[in-house]
Amino acid sequence: MMKIDLLHKNLLSVSIAASLGLTTPVVATADDLLLEEIVVTAQKRQQSLQDVPISVSAVDGEKMSEAGINNLQDLSAYVPNFQQANSPLGQVISIRGISSGINQGFEQSVVQYVDDIAMGRGPMARMPFMDLERVEVLRGPQNVLFGKNSIGGAISITTAKPTEDFEGSVQVEHEHKYGTNEIQAMVSGPLSETVGARLAIRAHQEDGYFDNTSNGDDEQQKDELTGRLTLDWTPNDTFNASLKLEHSSFDFEGRGEEVIAGYDSVSPLFAGMSYGEIGEYLTAATGQDIGYEDGTQNRKRQTNNNEYSDNETNQVILTMNWDLDAFTITSVTGYVDYELDEDTDLDLSGLESIRAAQQEKFDQISQEIRFTSPGGETVDWIAGAYYQSWDLEYSQQNVIDDENLTSALSDIGLGLLMPSAGATGFNPAASLLTNYGVADPFLAATASGRQLYSLKEINNTSNIRDYNGSSDTYSVFGQATWNVNEEVRLTLGARYTLEEKDAERSLVIYDTSGGGLTPAGLEAQLVMAGVFGIENHAVEDDRREESVTGTVIAEWDATEELMLYASISNGFKAGGFDARAGRAADFEYEDETVINYEIGTKAELLGGRAQLNAAIFYTDYKDLQVSQFDGTVGFVVGNAAAARSQGIELDGRIMLTEELLLIGSMAYLDYEFKEYEGAACPPKVTLDTGAVTCDLSGEPNSFAPELTAAITLDYLTPLSDAFNLHMTLDTSYRSEQFVEATLEPLVEQDSQVNVNARIALEADNWMVALVGKNLTDNDDIGYASATPVSGSSLLQAPTYSGYQVNPRTVSIQAKYNF
After folding, report:
1. Strand partners, 802
2. Fewer CB within 10 Å, N or C, the chain?
3. Residues 610-638: pLDDT tens digits?
């Protein structure tokens, strides 16, 4: 029976998204081939995926462990119309082209929920996956049952729970070329007749995929450690309580980005030179060692700061369920916090210009009460109330010393001054006021000299910005499904939300030449405003917003195998306050709204051997919140006027034979800014035309490829009574896309095909496998931004830095179950 049991067990664990098929357990016998039911909680109750009138993908925890899906970025390769990208200052999560950009004041438009707790801050997207039951990706607004600004979609993560029987496992993985090692261990079982426990630990170390030729280090080095204890108490048939305690630390040294492309300078002083060549010229001309930059995408970095990022997170979640005759009461109480401390080479290059130390501290408490009907009645309903409160502290210190790019430029300026002007008695600030402009070309050699010499005023300066914000959210919600008859259902849902926020932000420019922090003089302030777009300021404000969001869904079982649905829903994301902008005027941004129309079908074919699902959507956004590079060193938050996202999503799976499962998905996306006249221009456009803002109306968004597709083949066959051979081939396609906010064509990414594969030998209580990722060795850029200062009138050589996807890796994996 060993061969039959193993075949049955492993086919049940075959998981590849349900939009990809990633949670697709199957049951196979000699007489028939049937796909096993996939159970999800996308509507806050357990349902078959085929019964949920939402475009949703579900990824099984075992699949993630086997395929090395360790975070949201890994997951994005398996789920259509979903991306997660790293940036120098945060994470970007996008569904159907909708994302929030990077700003510490932002809550994400695509919100993570871990065991029903909303985790809407960008740094939380860094948290690694460990010992999960499943991940569900819900596309489109989820503002009724999930709420908390889930205007683009929701990612619902469910951690694994204690088991009735004692069990445990240890899995190790080693990749030699880049020094990656990982161990995951789990033990689970009963402590008594009413109490169960599950302890899981994950440790991950990685040397990194980049060679920093300035300091000789491999980067980005990672050191991650996560521990989770889950206790489950079931004293009787009507009550259950689950307490989860989790702590994670994930520390990085270096970064995974480099300068990737740029334009030659059009400045009279540096004409024809690239950004890196300007650095070499300044080093030779002034004798200052300001670093070097090769300016090419080659997995070689030249940053000369010892960059690091230390992150710690904590979760405490208590979930209680009371099963009563008429309904179930669910209480979810959560506490979440994180702290990060990092040092960043803010100029993103090997040329020493400006570096930043930043700290962020966040804590959140929330309470949700839900009342859920048993289901299967004429009217199935769910109702509840929600409260959340959070506090955020953010601090950033930018440092400019006396031997860097600006210092070298000031020395060049001194040499260019006409003898009659001289340095004695020359007022740099006055010269700056008459000659300096972000978009202005150099007027003449003497004017250029004065302009450059003005930079002496910001040598040995530091600017410190502090931000404190808090929020309280209150909401009530309800959703009811009227089962009109056995074939027709009508669902109505609504949520009322009251959100109150307050924030304060200050920025002070200091003189550090004396070894301490002394307020900088007027000249330094004026030059800092011209070069980096920052000014001394202190602002504070508060806001109060109310919203009502709703959904209407109609479902029709046309046959026993075919369900059709249509839905209309609206969403709301509260406004807030910009945590990073350098000017007092850039502080508050407004709310954004959305209305979504969707029709879809979920079908079973070939007597349960195959499934085919489809969704067509049209989404209309107004006042979309965006964050764009300001051309200096900052990102400014604003509201785009209007945007439209529409498309189609298809997924299907079929058991080709008892041993072979085929899964496929495809998504077509047509995203367009309907009206967006105030967008930031690419620096090259600013230099060529003088325009600072551009009209992006009619243009697509970043992270909005027109076509994505994936195919998975999963093959499982017995080799003997003791062993099975299990092979998986995952392929994905993504058409060209922009990965930079101003849609700079120089860094537009071409279409790409990615291939992952796994071959494993499996026995009753052990497994050994070979896992290959990115076997086509794509060198795609996942996120790009303008390299600070490079495109300004000082240098006039617009250059871009970007985060590159991980290269081809092959690792060995082993697991032992006990």
Report:
1. 258, 784
2. N
3. 999 999 999 999 988 877 665 555 566 77
